[in-house]
Amino acid sequence: MINKSLGFCSLILLGLGLGELAFSPKMVQGAEMCNFRNEIVRVSGAYINKDDIWVTKGWWLVQPGECMVYPDNWYTYVEVDRDQTVERTYLLDLEDEEIQTVNLCVLQDRYTFYNGEEYEVCDKHHYGFSDNSMQTFYLIGSRREIIEYTR
Q1: C-alpha distances out from residue 8 to 5, 16, 20, 120, Å
Q2: Does the N-terminal or the C-terminal CB of the chain have fewer CB atoms within 10 Å?
């Protein structure tokens, strides 16, 4: 009887501990981007690493009707192709929401890029592409963003 009680108490404590871990504000939350367009969108992500350096990475392809989950401390830039950026300025008009932006270098091939916050750095490291550019990345936090056609 005592062993069963100890086992039951251990399960309760384990459950409480896991519950605290799962719902702790210190745990990483996720942001989600869903593609409601009839075309594939390309996503580039950016974050500040532990050495306080901007890191940008790309590209993730999000198929029509699919969603992408990523860390909520990442800034994102979305395009259809090199010539068509997805308009996201509506994010800045959300009431009671603090959306942050940063301009960072985007390379048009699969990439990981460091210190891309200055245009000169982006232009200098063109890696054979002449259409690298500075683009606006948005930090949406732990929420869902729907990518759709805008008017």
Answers
A1: 5, 12, 18, 63
A2: C
Location of structure tokens 């392809």: 61
Q: How far apart are CA 103 and CA 77, in angstroms?
A: 10
4: confidence class by pLDDT, cuts 50, 70, 90: low
Count other Cβ atoms within 10 Å, centred on residue 76: 21
**pTM metric for this prediction:** 0.75
User: How many CA atoms lie less than 13 Å away from 45 in the CB half-sphere?
Assistant: 17
Instruction: Using alpha carbons only, give the angle 52, 101, 63 rounded to the nearest 5 degrees.
Output: 100
Cis peptide bond prior to 59, omega within 30° of 0: yes
Domain ranges of the chain: 28-147
Round to whole Å and give the CA distance between 55 and 14: 38
Using alpha carbons, list the distances in angstroms from residue 10 to 3, 16, 17, 88, 141.
10, 10, 10, 49, 36
Beta bridge partners of 44: 58, 77
pLDDT tens-digit series, residues 125-143: 555 555 678 899 999 988 8
